[in-house]
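Folding follows sequence. Below is one example:
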Amino acid sequence: MSLGWSDSSLEGVKPAEVVKFAALRRAQISALYPGVRLVIPAGTLKVRSNDTEYKFRVHSAYAYLTGISASDCVPDSVLVLEPDAKGHKALLFIHPRSPRNTEEFHSDRVNGEFWIGRRLSARETEERYGINVRHIDTLPEMLEDDVDTLAIHHEDPVVDALVEVRKKREAKLLSQISELRLIKDRYEIAEIQRAVDVTIRGFSDMVQALPAATSVKRGERIIESAFYGRARLEGNDLGYETIAAAGSHACILHWMKNDGDVIPGDLILIDAGVEVESMYTADITRTIPINGKFSPAQRKIYNIVYEAQRAGFEAVKPGAPWSAFHNAASAVLAKGLEELGVLPVSAEESLKESAGFHRRWTIHSTGHMMGLDVHDCAQARKESYHGGTLEEGMVLTVEPGLYIQPDDLLFPAEYRGIGVRIEDDVLVTKTGAQVLSRALPSHPDEVEVWVANLLR
């Protein structure tokens, strides 16, 4: 079984673009933990049903500190930052490829190439990612010594068994990694832009699928499927489950059943993002008239949200409080609701913290950080994130919305069941905001032209 195979080693493997950026990230976390061994697991396969697993996606801290792309990531891998005289040495423990001259090739359904295909050898991994590689089987021996060790738990049972849980210190480590991720480096910004560009093409695919979606029951799934095809063709996967919410489903913030009908005359709210091979994602929402034209009531609500987003963009600048763009957008939303005659008080009164009547129709915040996770940097301290200030290099979403439930008697009948959200991805620059997704139309007139052109 192991004889008669030609050499299948890869020659001329070049260092990945991310290598120097990942090394700098490791140096930053190293400086915070002198003398402490840091253990960052990639994670393991998760069982979906019986003996089948979900597609593997590594822990974001591992992705951030190694830079390894989705196609090269191996389940059960572990990054160890081993303390030395210069700070830390990076060691990557992996299960390398199981080529044809090994018993694993045929017999190991988890690691054998016959079962799962080729992956990088230890040498190829070192050459591509610039990290010293060791076999995963040698990890237990290394972790059995008395070096002060801190690990991320609940991602890998082997690591969990070998390293003592230290909840407070581990929470601090996760928080510090999250805070490092708040400011994106040049490589990250380029990868997010790549994800945005692919996502925009996916939105065009979904618009072109509208005629097919209106012709069948559960047409929302036609829309969802069109986007998934683009995500898999040009990226690694979806950044998150696509929301394809037609009609009053748009008023359900996390609608992911996508089993509704797509009916001409209604709007469809689509919230979708592609995760590219580097595992950076986009997060974009558009609300589109299914027949290509907004009704007067739809346009009225849409315009309020559109102007709220413009106000949010204007408030994004270095040194501004995180809350500034949310407050700016909320002021426009509240004023629009006042003009529609549905607020029991003035917009100014409603915006007071003790009131908030406008929140009946706009519950969520106006944005979040974005990067390796669609809701990025979630473990950062409040004072560094929601209670902090915007800084150059941050990437965030600006996504105001208004949602009028179909049974909302405070609104006239023609408005009921209308849900509108407009979401774009924004880079904080030296002078303000750069809208990374600006190529995707959002003004209502431009949306109508865009849809018409795609459906010709």
Notes: The CA atoms of residues 33 and 240 lie 33 Å apart. The chain has two domains: 19-180, 186-454. Residues 186-208 form the longest helix (23 residues).
